[in-house]
Amino acid sequence: MNDRRIFQRIAASFPVKFWDPKANNVGEARIDDVSAAGVGFTSNENLSPGVSLGLWLEIPDNGERLYLHGLVAQSKATSQNQYHIGVRFFKPELMGMSRVLRAEQSFI
């Protein structure tokens, strides 16, 4: 399979809250990987591709939550009631991702 991503994904593990404005639903999940163009997380909610989400990334750097807006690109069942959700940001988030990189480097 040919990976067409422009920005490299990095493994990460920290909380994220997501909001589906159409369903008026707020959920919590755990980040699996992140890049400047998107994020992958594990959730017990199956979010359909095409759903617009607001995301609050709780980066472990003692800073404020990073708010991003994106579109669900994929949702795959990983086990019973567990889904890997891939979200593509509407615009690349370079400055915010620098916080993620610094935070994740501090745990290496």
Describe the structure.
This protein is mainly beta and 108 residues long. It has a single domain, classed as Thrombin, subunit H (Beta Barrel), CATH 2.40.10. A hairpin with an 8-residue loop joins strand 5 and strand 6. The relative contact order is 0.23.
Question: What attributes characterize this protein structure?
Answer:
single chain; 108 residues; mainly beta; Thrombin, subunit H; 6-stranded antiparallel beta barrel; 11% helix
Q: What is the topology?
A:
Blueprint: E1 10-11, E2 15-20, E3 25-34, E4 38-43, E5 52-57, E6 66-79, E7 82-89, H1 94-105
Antiparallel strand pairs: 1-3, 2-3, 2-5, 3-4, 4-7, 5-6, 6-7
Q: Biggest sheet, in brief?
A: 6 strands, antiparallel, barrel
The number of helical segments is 1
Low-confidence runs: none
Shape: globular
Number of strands: 7
State Rg. Answer: 13 Å
CATH superfamily: predicted glycosyltransferase like domains
Q: In which order are the strands of the major sheet placed?
A: 2-3-4-7-6-5
Structural class: mainly beta
Q: What proportion strand?
A: over 45%
Order of helices and strands: EEEEEEEH
Query: Percentage of helical residues?
Result: 10-25%
Question: What is the number of independent domains?
Answer: 1
Q: What's the CATH class, please?
A: Mainly Beta
Taking all residues together, what is the mean pLDDT?
Answer: 87
CATH fold-type name: Thrombin, subunit H
Q: Architecture in CATH?
A: Beta Barrel
